[in-house]
């Protein structure tokens, strides 16, 4: 029997959080190696574990996978969260990548100085470009694609949570998205991951930022 997947990243959300969410929804237990020192990172590099010298990295099924989207697609396909055919799969990928666009804008906030301007930009784009698409797609549908739970739903759900952390009430104008969010919380695996004590990470703080910068850029930018 194969061992648990092992996730190599920092003790924070970043690009690994979507992978944590997908594994949790697939009900796959995983272990984590949390990077806190440059020495850990150098060891991974010297071992040849990081194809493009970057994390996140996931050890699964005898492989060392990097590139967030590639990892997500592998897990989604392995656990039947990636549609029934190529047409469903490409729709899932488009919806999932739209949600990731928004989440990536939020991810960089702890590392920039002009946060207010960036927040205003995120809110505008979310309300004018992204949320209307999901609102339309969820009209009369439980899930985004094919009537079944998929990677796209998991990423949209995570995206809605991140948006609400920054903009209280942002979903008020998008009732279908808000209803979708409520349905997702009723899925037992989702509910468990939302509980205190799970491997879900909190919003990034100064300790997280300092750790990331110290590991990746020990001599400064």
From TrEMBL:
Keyword NAD: no
Domain GST N-terminal positions: 3-83
KW Transferase (keyword) present: yes
SUPFAM superfamilies reported in the protein's UniProt record: GST C-terminal domain-like, Thioredoxin-like
BP terms from Gene Ontology: glutathione metabolic process
Any GO MF annotation of the entry: glutathione transferase activity
Pfam family of the protein (one): GST_C
Protein known as: Glutathione S-transferase
Reaction it catalyzes: RX + glutathione = an S-substituted glutathione + a halide anion + H(+)
GST C-terminal domain sequence ranges: 85-205
Keywords: Transferase
Enzyme class: transferase
Enzyme Commission designation: 2.5.1.18
